Amino acid sequence: MRTSLRRARGTFAVAVVAALATLVALPTQARTRTARTVIRDAADTAGPLDLARVAVAQRGRGLVISVRVRGRILGRVLPPLPRAGDRTPHFLCLAFQRSRPAGALRVCLGRGGGRWRAGVEELGAGGGVRSARTISARVLALRREKLRARIAPAAAGLAVGGYRVDAESAWSGPACRTTAACRDRAPGGGAARFRLRPLRLAACRRGGVGLTFSGPRGKRAAALTFDDGPSAYTPQVLAILNRFHVHGTFFEIGSQVSGNEHVMNDILDSGDEVGDHTYHHVPNAGYGEIASAQRRIEEATGFRTCLFRPPDGVYNSGTVAAAKRLGMGTIVWSVDPRDWSRPGTGAIYSRVVSAAHAGSIVILHDGGGNRSETVAALPRIIRTLKGRGLRLVTVSQLLGQPMSWRPVGG
Fold first, then answer.
1. Global pTM?
2. Selected catalytic residue, list 41, 227, 228, 336
3. Which CATH architecture has domain 200-407?
4. pLDDT tops 50 at residue 15
């Protein structure tokens, strides 16, 4: 489908997607609130990393880990991965263990390469390390005695289900006479339990705020968007996004929803977002075209979108006003590789990565014709943009739109 861009100004907001943990604590040392487990530990070991309180919570698709100590957290000496045989260890870790099979995943927070990272170790039944790697971690709060960070459960290898969790810290210094004296564990006995449950997007909580072409440049994020689906290419695009643990926004044509309801539900279940692209792909669309597509999307998925994209980027003041009446912002784009013209995989890749930056909204297509070139270019686009430090998020996330969620199957 041909796309032509008309320039305008505006702002819009949106936020995103998918998994939630319902966390239930074990005995008296751990207590549970909705979507959060809090583990409190007595002052049983003197030292800077004596654990006082550890909280684990799921927020959207992020797992938030909060650790409070009775001494002082020194980020410069906390590595993301504990070093085997280290005689002067410093680490803060949480172990997540399934009842079956044996073994666990241990997630540690620390600095690597000048940035905060999360180390992920796969432990065998005997506690030995089978594999180790680091993933991105976003620090939400860092004070003398407290560290709170967010990671992606999928990137850490944490699947939906139940876990036993406990925290461990280690440190060294003049006061440490033995290795045992420089370690702490919370809870002191047993473990806490939590269940990681998937969430799916239910509705926007605010919308209809006008017209926008890009997001804020102040945060290192960009949005990949896909037009003219759902189609046979949509599952391929979704699989790539899932593989790289990134998210996108799919602007769907209402007349193409029938027979593709499962694909659209998979989009929402994966933490991605669905938007309105009119019912018949009509430029300068009026209220009826936009409303019909919004209604069809809601019938198929239960999700009421607050994002509208005008086909071919062609709109008028009536189009924007109609979308706003329906509670939707009009989202255009700032990066267009013209992939609809099938210029070749290399051209699609180079046009995106040469123009994209923080705040960009990139238009690609998963329908409207043969989209094999777009599918082929997408993994390399994602690798390059992630390599620049950009988080690839939905339009909602990019612009901060508040959303409502519900458990999958609930």
1. 0.64
2. 227
3. Alpha-Beta Barrel (3.20)
4. no
